[in-house]
């Protein structure tokens, strides 16, 4: 049996009166890809952010890599070191070169050896076809290039777990494929990931498991192939029909 990296048990989260996550339960095996699908406002970003300690929660618990995290938990720092996250907006520092953007966390936060990190960053830039860009500034890059840099920046911190929240949503269509290829490459290397995406062909290709959310609840949980070929709930069927792919 595959080893489990994450277990979410009865997780609930409110923003004031609004219940954004309602009794969420699922597990993530090491090396697997979980795709979160659901309409806008269903709680996908909230769930991803809660898993990384960027949002508090009121009930339930998260078990990550053997560490039990309840609603009172405070010691997120060492956990966040193991979790990489890439959002829709890339937020590179405009005054730093590509390489310096990537080096910042490993050197300042992880206190690692510069030569070692430069080597790793250079190798990773090569894998995303951006080796020639290490001395350029973010403003000289396209959105797709910036997003690939943001992924390299996260990977250079050696995460055990990657969270992707609609990383291609703000890109021009011709930039999308290159970014998705990088994520597919990570899946082939057995990186454990949760991916939120509206790119349905990509989701179908990459998902070991699909969690379909609506109004803060998991409405359907299936294997990737089952969800796309034979969705069980009417809501999932309607959602897939509306996605037109
Ligand atoms: N910071 C916030 N404060 C209050 N409500 C929020 C906040 N962030 C999200 N919400 C609400 O929580 C629900 C889930 O939002 P979100 O997780 O962003 O959904 P999704 O990512 O699936 O589009 C929505 O009703 C949204 O309006
Ligand atoms: Mg969202």
From TrEMBL:
Q: Which CDD domains match?
A: ABC_HisP_GlnQ (cd03262)
* UniProt xrefs under Pfam families: ABC_tran
Keyword Nucleotide-binding assigned to the entry: answer is: yes
- Family in the record: Belongs to the ABC transporter superfamily.
Tell me one GO molecular function of this protein.
Answer: ATP hydrolysis activity
List the keywords (alphabetical): ATP-binding, Nucleotide-binding, Transport
Q: Which residues form the ABC transporter domain?
A: 6-240
User: Which species is the source of this protein?
Assistant: Paucilactobacillus nenjiangensis
The name this protein carries in UniProt is Amino acid ABC transporter ATP-binding protein
């Amino acid at each position: 049996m595959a080893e489990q990296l994450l277990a979410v048990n009865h997780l609930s989260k409110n923003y004031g009166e609004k219940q954004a996550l309602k009794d969420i339960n699922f597990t993530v095996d090491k090396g697997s890809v979980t795709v979160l699908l659901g309409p806008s406002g269903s709680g996908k970003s909230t769930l991803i952010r809660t898993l990384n300690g960027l949002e508090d929660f009121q009930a339930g618990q998260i078990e990550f890599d053997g560490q039990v995290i309840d609603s009172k938990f405070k010691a997120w720092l060492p956990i966040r070191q193991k979790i990489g996250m890439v959002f829709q907006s890339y937020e590179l520092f405009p005054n730093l070169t590509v390489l310096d953007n990537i080096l910042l966390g490993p050197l300042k936060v992880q206190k690692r050896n510069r030569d070692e990190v430069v080597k790793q960053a250079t190798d990773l830039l090569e894998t995303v076809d951006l080796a020639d860009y290490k001395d350029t500034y973010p403003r000289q890059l396209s959105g797709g290039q910036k997003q690939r840099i943001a992924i390299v920046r996260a990977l250079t911190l050696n995460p055990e777990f990657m969270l992707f929240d609609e990383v291609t949503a703000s890109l021009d269509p011709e930039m999308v494929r290159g970014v998705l290829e990088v994520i597919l490459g990570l899946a082939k290397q057995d990186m454990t990931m949760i991916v939120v995406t509206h790119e349905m062909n990509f989701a179908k290709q990459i998902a070991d498991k699909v969690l379909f959310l609506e109004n803060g609840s998991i409405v359907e949980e299936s294997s990737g192939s089952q969800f796309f070929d034979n969705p069980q709930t009417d809501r999932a069927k309607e959602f897939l029909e509306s996605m037109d792919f």
